[in-house]
Amino acid sequence: MRLDVAILLATLLAAGVPAQGAQSTLDSGVQVRKPRLMLVPEAAVNQSAAQQYAQLKQQAAAKGVLNANAPAVARVRAVAARLIPQGARFNARAAQWPWEVNVIDAPAVNAFCMPGGKIVVFDGIIERLKLTDDELAAVMGHEIAHALLEHGRARMSEAVMKNVGINLAAAYFGLSNVGANALAQAADLAITLPYSRSHETDADLVGIELAARAGFDPRAAVSLWKKMAAVGSGQPPQFLSTHPGHTERIRQIEANLPRVLPLYVNAVASRQ
Ligand SMILES: [Zn+2]
After folding, report:
1. Are 134 and 220 in contact (CB under 8 A)?
2. Which pTM value belongs to this model?
3. Ligand 1 centroid vs 204 CA: distance in angstroms?
4. Whether residue 158 lies in the annotated active site
């Protein structure tokens, strides 16, 4: 019986079929579906991410590059402070996450938001792409969206299944067989592997809505990806290795701008 459940789950995951209970998150704005088939508990994912984040901060601090660029830190934190409160409509639990926003002073064109709201922006992405605040909000909105939609948790769930060879039924009924090492390994994969195309699209759409609701011009997502493509034609930046495909991305963003531009207009009006 349990084996049947395991096979069914594996088939669903492999096929990428939307799980039962998948929902559209909004009555206005963009429409996305949140992954529902999550074998790894949120607490385990967030704890694993928090540990990795603490390690990363420690390493950066030891090299003297943690929050060393004060103007960049101020900009990034100001943008984050406006975006984060907009996340509740996509993930109610995010309001309780211990969000952290740190800037690493290094030339990498990279940024990410780990599960549970642990954000890192490399100031290389700001300086090399000469990002405006609206474009910075587009980068951060996209990354925050991955965390809100729990894409890391979905990838960890897949990684645990595919790479660790655990007893799937046991995982489904309580994760008793998933050790800390397996979770850490899965977390590594979840952070270094590219996101799937559908996760990317959903993060783009939720990202432009977060930005619009926070009063940032969502059209900046288009200029951001054009800049990213231009810098990527030489030596591809790290960000692009986990965020492939600009042409289709830009098309999707442009198609969805009419859904979020009214939110931007409202937000700007209420800020004045
Ligand atoms: Zn992404």
Report:
1. yes
2. 0.81
3. 7
4. no
Q: Which residues surround ligand 1, an ion (CB under 5 A)?
A: 195, 203, 243
- Which residues make beta-bridge pairs with 266? none
Tokens of 23: 């929902």
User: What is the number of other CB atoms lying within 10 angstroms of the CB of residue 54?
Assistant: 12
Supply the Cα-derived Rg of the chain in whole angstroms: 19
Dist. CA 111 → ligand 1 center (Å): 10
Characterize the bridge pairing of strands 118-122 and 100-104: parallel
61-82: per-residue pLDDT in tens?
A: 999 999 999 999 999 999 999 9
Q: From ligand 1's centre to the CA of 248, what distance in Å?
A: 14
The CA-atom distances, in angstroms, between 239 and each of 1, 111, 134, 264 are 43, 7, 18, 26
- Element (DSSP H or E) covering residue 118: strand 118-122
Among 30-44, 119-133, 193-207, which stretch is predicted with the lowest mean pLDDT? Answer: 30-44
Q: How many CB atoms lie within 10 A of CB 236?
A: 14
Kindly report, residue by residue over 235-264, the tens digit of the pLDDT.
Answer: 556 666 666 667 888 999 999 999 999 999
Chain centroid to Cα 186, Å, comes to 16
The owner of tokens 């979840």 is: 190
pLDDT at 193: 67
Out of 42, 100, 127, 143, pick the active-site residue.
143
How many angstroms does the Cα of residue 167 sit away from the middle of ligand 1? 30
With tokens 């940024």, the residue in question is 111
Instruction: Report the sign of the C-alpha dihedral through residues 92, 193, 38, 209, in that order.
Output: positive
